[in-house]
Design goal:
This protein has five helices and five strands. By secondary structure, it is mainly α. The chain has two domains: 138 residues, Orthogonal Bundle (Helix Hairpins); 57 residues, no CATH class. The longest helix has 83 residues. It is rod-shaped and about 135 Å long.
Length: 238
């Protein structure tokens, strides 16, 4: 049974390598960075879209102010012409015309101030838009590079995984049928630690002492022996 015990130990080592591959921290770290980059890109795109909508809204306001300014300028001209051409009008009528001119001029001035204020904001937003685009571009490049790195590492892991599985099959093909049955039974409870060493009459899997009869059977090596407590397959060739 010595060779069978060594094969079981080798099979356990391969199972542990398989588990280690599925728990690689480096791949998880790359996934974390990709998730972070993707989130930043999405946030940037949302902010850029909001900025573009704001720019469009302000540009519409500017166009509307230009129309109103032209209208008020025309009305001021008309009112002033009336004021200059008025003869024999009462003081009340003259004051009314003057107030109308002053009101239109005030509205025109307010519109002009708002017009230039909006143009300034539009320019600032356009600069910010370019900054957003550049930031998104950089993040997208980093994201794409991360995807490439992830895919490369994943392919390497899948190749190693296939190699390990192939080696496991080779080892299992050399096991006796009765040993395969014992192995499968123990593996259901301990997928990567189904074999344990016997040391000073103690199972190193559960660290509990064995009966003298069980220790004797393990040391004789005629048949494979399960641990009385945990059920792992016991070996004594070390």
């Amino acid at each position: 049974m010595l060779r069978q015990e060594r094969l079981l130990w080798r099979l356990q080592e391969l199972k542990q390598e398989e588990v280690a591959l599925t728990q690689t921290e480096e791949l998880k770290a790359i996934m974390g960075r990709l998730k972070d980059f993707r989130g930043k890109v999405q946030t940037g795109e949302q902010e850029l879209q909001s900025l573009l909508e704001m720019i469009e809204k302000m540009e519409n306001e500017v166009a509307e102010l230009e129309k109103k300014s032209s209208y008020w300028a025309e009305q001021v001209k008309i009112s002033k012409d009336k004021l200059y051409e008025t003869k024999g009008s009462s003081l009340k009528e003259l004051l009314s015309l003057q107030q109308s001119v002053l009101k239109l001029e005030s509205q025109g001035k307010e519109a002009e101030n708002k017009y230039w204020e909006l143009l300034k904001k539009i320019e600032e937003c356009k600069q910010k838009k370019d900054e957003y685009k550049e930031t998104i571009k950089v993040l997208q490049i980093e994201f794409d590079e991360g995807v490439t790195q992830y895919q490369k590492m994943k392919a390497e892991i899948e190749l190693k995984f296939a190699e390990i599985k192939s080696k496991q099959e080779e080892v299992q093909e050399q096991l006796f049928p009765e040993v395969v049955k014992l192995f499968q039974e123990a593996e259901r409870h301990y997928p990567a630690s189904f074999v344990a060493k016997l040391h000073k009459n103690t199972c190193l899997g559960c660290h509990i002492g064995l009966s003298l009869a069980s220790v004797k059977r393990v040391k004789e090596g005629k048949v494979l022996q399960h641990c009385d407590n945990c059920g792992r397959i016991l070996i004594d060739f070390f």
